[in-house]
Specification:
The structure holds 2 protein chains of 2 kinds.
Chain A (H helix, E strand, L loop, with lengths): L6 H4 L3 H22 L1 H10 L20 H6 L13 E6 L9 E5 H17 L7 E4 L7 H13 L2 E3 L6 H11 L3 E4 L1 H13 L11 E5 L5 H11 L2 E8 L4 E7 L6 E3 L4 E6 L13 E7 L10 E7 L1 E2 L11 E2 L4 E2 L4 E3 L2 E3 L1 H9 L8 E6 L6 E7 L9 H19 L4 E5 L14 E3 L5
Parallel strand pairs in A: 3-4, 3-5, 5-6, 6-7, 18-21, 19-20
Antiparallel strand pairs in A: 1-2, 7-8, 8-9, 9-14, 10-11, 11-12, 12-15, 13-14, 16-17, 18-19
Chain B lengths: L1 E10 L4 H11 L4 E8 L3 E8 L2 H10 L4 E12 L4 H11 L4 E8 L5 E8 L2 H10 L3 E2 L2 H5 L2
Antiparallel strand pairs in B: 1-3, 1-4, 2-3, 4-6, 4-7, 5-6
The chains are: A alpha/beta, B alpha+beta.
Chain lengths: 435, 143
């Protein structure tokens, strides 16, 4: 059994936990109301005051916060702490509109380090480990989140960041990295490259991995564990809340322990917005209980999951969330990149002669997301020569890749066979099997 | 000489070729020559028909993407090496052939060859100079 980083926080008795959560909730609601004009306006509109929060259930009286509101507050509108107390800024990845900007105070960075230390410990990381951190460093929270957690544990971090597969492999081999952190799909890239470079993955010292930032499946876990000879665990988090470290799997690998003493979870029905009971599948809503820089009250993550309470075999009592199985809106996460169908549409419309009818199909044929965009072969795109048609296809592919930042495949289909935009045409077909 | 050809975009989907041909059959449009080019995702059906304008209209009404363009029609002796001679003429002149298809003439002892060169005018010029027997639109449609 791996070490529990913070027994006090991770093994609270139900009553202790509830008491702590309520005290913190009352404080953060008041704090947000007093310091962030958006919350004051939203609470007033709903006719609710901080003093109305007398039980955890009273959280249901509060309005939700969604990504749209955070965008409207660009850049600093959601900040509750004075600028001089902000020590770091991160933004959520996104390809349309303004990014969401989150501010961190020293205490927030400490909070983040703490939850990441708990997460990495769950995966088996100790101070003797060498953590190869292949999440991107930068405004994206993946890189620094893992970095802070590993530092707190006292492990040795290799801040290699994302990409440069050849070098990643060399360093894993030569530096004797024991823990790998990156997106799950990247591990399979690594495995394939290792094969090409004739690096025997069995001979490496890697023994555990902390993988997240995109949806993945049990089947993918099997594949990763088999190919990389390590124990693969799932991590969950989002910039709006803190970054990675909101929840993480322990060695039991049946659900992700959500750090309930600092993040309060609810599951709602994305349609009725009513709170669902434990075990029911719905959209995850999170409230930060201690965040100073940018407190989040009832943030709609759009991630579909369910919660399961009770004591885990590992000894922790924190509630567990199921792995994410979908998104409640059609925002897509492809190979870890957030993509909006609307941005693909925008890119398509910039191409002369292209009809504004399209269909996006996402599949995962070989454990890696693949995205196909079908467009209609209008007369202006059509040619009697195959060569020209292939060129047209490539041009569209390149254009979308340039503006959306994602490699995809364009298929030409016959005119009038794609859904028309009468009200809400279904244009996105996510055929990834996530279970 | 220049002859009109119609090209039809076909998705690689069951029954699409049949549907295109049926639409033409209903309107009693006779097909003189036909070829299909295909890739993994789609195909291009190319046709020489007696009434290309009408054929285009009919197919468009059935929701096909159709294009009309010119190709070169020539008559080649129906004997070994007949086509090779023509192609080497083009090759020597540095003219690329995009595609080619052929059918036998019922009346004459010739093969009719449909050629698409990158530059149609240039192709015609070279073939004329080499005294290749060119067929007019009228010749082809009345076959």
């Amino acid at each position: 059994m791996s070490l529990i980083w913070n027994k006090k926080a991770e093994c609270l008795l139900p009553l202790e936990k509830e008491q702590l959560q309520l005290e913190r909730l009352q404080h953060i609601v008041k704090y947000a109301y007093e310091r962030v004009p958006y919350y004051k306006k939203a609470f007033d509109k709903s006719g609710v005051k901080p003093s109305d929060i007398n039980s955890l259930k009273d959280i249901e009286k509060l309005p939700f916060t969604s990504k749209a509101e955070l965008r409207d507050a660009y850049p600093y509108g959601m900040f509750a702490a004075p600028m001089e107390d902000i020590v770091e800024i991160h933004t959520s990845s996104g390809t349309t509109g303004k990014p969401v900007v989150m501010g961190y105070t020293i205490a927030d960075i400490e909070l983040w380090s703490e939850v990441m230390a708990r997460s990495l410990s769950m995966a088996g990381c100790t101070k003797t480990d060498i953590v190869q951190n292949a999440y991107g460093y930068g405004l994206f929270t993946g890189g620094l989140g893992v970095h802070y957690g590993a530092r707190k544990i006292g492990a040795n971090v290799i801040p290699i960041s994302a990409g440069n597969t050849k070098r990643q492999l060399e360093i894993i081999r030569d530096f004797g990295s024991t823990i790998l952190t990156c997106t799950p799909s990247y591990t399979l890239f690594l495995a394939e490259s290792a094969k090409e470079d004739k690096i025997d993955l069995k001979s490496l010292k890697l023994r555990a991995g902390v993988f997240g930032a995109e949806m993945w499946t049990e089947k993918m876990r099997e594949e990763i564990e088999k190919r990389l000879h390590l124990s693969a665990t799932n991590i969950y988090g989002l910039t709006e809340i803190i970054g990675p470290g909101v929840a993480q799997e322990c060695e039991v690998k049946q659900g992700l322990h959500l750090q309930e003493d600092v993040f309060y979870p609810e599951i709602i029905s994305p349609e009725s917005l009513s709170v669902l009971s434990e075990g029911k599948k719905g959209e995850l809503v999170l409230t930060t209980l201690t965040r100073e820089g940018t407190p989040m009250i009832r943030f709609r993550t759009k991630d579909i999951t369910s919660l399961c309470g009770g004591e885990c075999k590992c000894g922790r009592t924190t509630i567990k969330m199921d792995r994410i199985t979908g998104r409640s809106d059609d925002m897509l996460k492809i190979r870890g990149v957030i993509v909006f169908p609307s941005s693909i549409e925008k890119a398509l419309l910039e191409i002369n002669g292209l009809e504004p009818h399209y269909k996006i199909i996402i599949t995962r044929p070989h454990q890696l997301d693949e995205i196909e965009v079908q467009v209609e072969a209008s007369e202006s795109l059509f040619s009697d020569e195959i060569r020209h048609m292939e060129e047209t296809k490539r041009n569209i592919e390149n254009h979308i890749e340039k503006s959306v930042g994602l490699k995809l495949k364009v298929t030409l289909v016959e005119p009038k066979t794609l859904p028309r935009s009468e009200g809400k045409a279904k244009r996105v077909f996510d055929q990834r099997e996530l279970k | 000489m220049r002859v009109k050809q119609i090209s039809i975009f076909l998705e690689n989907k069951k029954g699409r070729l049949l549907e295109a041909l049926k639409a033409l059959g209903r309107e009693k449009i006779n097909i003189r020559a036909l070829s299909i080019a295909d890739t993994l995702d789609f195909g291009i059906l190319r046709l020489i028909v007696a009434d290309p304008d009408k054929a285009k209209l009919v197919l468009e009404q059935s929701n096909f993407t159709v294009k009309e363009n010119d190709v070169i029609a020539i008559a080649v002796k129906d004997q070994p090496g007949g086509l090779a001679d023509v192609l080497s003429t083009l090759s020597n002149a540095g003219i690329n052939v995009e595609y080619i298809y052929a059918f036998a003439d019922k009346q004459e002892n010739d093969a009719v060859v449909v050629l698409r060169t990158e530059d149609i005018d240039e192709g015609i010029k070279v073939l004329k100079k080499a005294n290749v027997h060119m067929l007019s639109a009228k010749d082809i449609y009345s076959l």
